[in-house]
Every structure is written in structure tokens, then in C-alpha cells.
Amino acid sequence: MRWIRPSLAALFAVSLSAAAENAPYAPLNTPTDFDYGVLMVTRDRLEVSTSCEIGLYVQDRLAARLYQGQSVSFNLPPGETLIRLGIVGQGACNSGFEQYSQQSVSLRAGQIRKYRIAANTNGLYLVPANL
Description:
- This protein is mainly beta and 131 residues long.
- Helix content is 15%, strand content 41%.
- It has one helix at 4-22; strands spanning 37-42, 53-58, 61-66, 71-76, 79-88, 103-107, 112-120, 123-128.
- Strands 4-1-7-8 form a four-stranded mixed sheet, with no helix packed on it. Strands 3-2-5-6 form a four-stranded antiparallel sheet, with no helix packed on it.
- The longest helix is centred in the N-terminal third of the chain and has 19 residues, at 4-22.
């Protein structure tokens, strides 16, 4: 009976080492560790002169609502992502018109891109933030 315990322990150790050899190995701290990029968007207090919420649409889906002074960040897959901005809310903020112009933001895996919301006569848009 005593010889069974050591042989079971040895068998268990061999099976663990075989499983470790077959496991996929990925070195740490390489650019391939990230399968997403980070998009950060900030609404500065003085840049857009409306007290209404600004809706941020990612791939044509409402992803965030920003008030003055707020920021939001998204983990997005690498590649091109379509971003659209628009005024959202109720009452005076609900004009019935929706902004359809979109911007394309390109992200690489592990990249962090920072933007701020700005406005001109054509509507709302994103500009790169200089931090």
C-alpha cells in the first residue's frame, strides 16, 4: 500500500509537466499582449457652448453621454472605428435633428488616442488632444 502513494504522486507530477509543455506560451511585456486600443474622449468646459448632453456614438450605437467637463474611454479592437457626435437630451436639447457626419478613428493594438470634442458651423467633431 505504501508504494502506491509515491507512484501516484509521480504520475501526477508527470501529467502536470506534460500539460505545461503543451500550453501556449506568450512572453510578457510585448506589444502583442494587447488586443485592443484605447480611445479617450474629453468634453472641455469651454470648447462646446451648450449645456445639453453630447452623445458619442461608436459604430452608430450610443456609447456615452457627456456633460461639460466629463471624459470617457473605450477599449476598442484595432483598426478603423466610426465615431459620431450629437446633441442628446430632452426639452430644448431635443431639436429633432441628428448629426449624421462621422469620423473614422484608427487604432493599433496597445495604442492610446486622446481626443477632445469641438464644434464649428458644420457640427461637432473630434480633435486630437495635446497633453
